[in-house]
Design brief:
The structure is a homodimer.
Chain A lengths: L15 H4 L13 H19 L7 H13 L2 E2 H7 L4 H13 L3 E6 L2 E9 L1 H22 L4 H13 L2
Antiparallel strand pairs in A: 1-3, 2-3
Helix pairs in contact in A: 2-6, 3-5, 3-6, 4-5
Chain A binds a DNA duplex (30 and 30 nucleotides) through helix 2, helix 3, helix 5 and strand 3.
Chain lengths: ~160, ~160
DNA sequence: CCACGATCATTTGCCTACCAATGATCCGGC
DNA sequence: GCCGGATCATTGGTAGGCAAATGATCGTGG
């Protein structure tokens, strides 16, 4: 649940004059959307890890497992596109799911380039459990916001994704 | 500028019935805040990499360099707290900045545990350039939103960070 | 039929990101 | 003075995340 916060130490006394960096005029890095996205993501990941301890899935593993469970049969690269992971990334995620026998891997005789993935029975069962935890994780992540703000945030994030 | 989008392929025809995963009732992983945060972060990182090609800084390297430039002298762990990076992470980020001689590293004789960091002249100069690029990056990231929405998003992200 | 471009998957390299463990040092209390 | 808890930094392990290169295969156009 912990994540590297901004709550540690009192601000340093040093000033622009001391550092000679007068050219940074009014640019506050902590207020930039990129910084805030990184921080929000860190907090969510920490909440996720906590809430998903039972299923022992990372956010990407969870996303891939859910998608495979929805779809049934899918090639690896296609699954990557559906879950916003490039081929190099999805490869490792899928490998770990296969190692745990949550996903099966077969080859398509009609297209020998592809790896065809499908959920196992254990994968489907775990996916069902994981969704329950995931609902709580989403709630916890959005807890600081009102209902209206929660919908706003999701809508805004969709627009910039 | 490219990032693994959701635009590649048409949706698969397979249904819940085909996969046997009826328990995922109405849970749409693409609409969850965690998924959207990851995606938004990916897009921003891609924009950042593009816009910061001249300075050749990653988002974390940029944040650390800006903070060191603002403050002047700071210990490594403290810099990590200010920039939301844990000690293991800030260590690598700082090492790369030192390798490029953007940041200097000295020891405090009064506290021999600590590493005292400070910007070099080259570091201050690069920070000034990088801020110019960073303003454009923020604008590009928020471009799909109206002015009001931009402020809303930043405010909401602050609340959940 | 074959050559060429596109797609699929993998591998390597680099960078974040965290946990856990370690060793050095500091500091407060006794 | 010293002992124990806290802090500082580093290391090793695991996991995203992307670029770039590679090799296999597919499909189409000539």
């Amino acid at each position: 649940m912990r994540y590297p916060g901004l709550h540690g130490d009192p601000p340093s006394i040093a000033s622009e004059a001391a550092s000679g960096a007068a050219a940074l005029d009014g640019y506050v890095v902590e207020d930039q959307v990129g910084f805030l996205l990184r921080r929000a993501n860190q907090r969510h990941t920490a909440i996720f890890q906590d809430g998903m301890a039972g299923a022992d899935l990372t956010p990407t593993q969870f996303t891939a497992l859910i998608k495979v469970s929805e779809i049934g049969r899918v090639t690896q690269n296609h699954l990557g596109r559906l879950t916003a992971m490039d081929p190099a990334t999805i490869q490792g995620v899928v490998r770990r799911l296969i190692d745990r026998e949550l996903v099966s891997r077969t080859t398509d005789p009609l297209d020998r380039r592809t790896v065809v993935l499908a959920p196992t029975q254990a994968g489907l069962a775990l996916a069902a459990d994981a969704v329950v935890a995931a609902r709580r994780i989403t709630d916890a992540t959005l807890d600081p916001l009102t209902q209206q703000e929660q919908h706003q945030l999701v809508a805004l994030l969709r627009k910039i994704s």
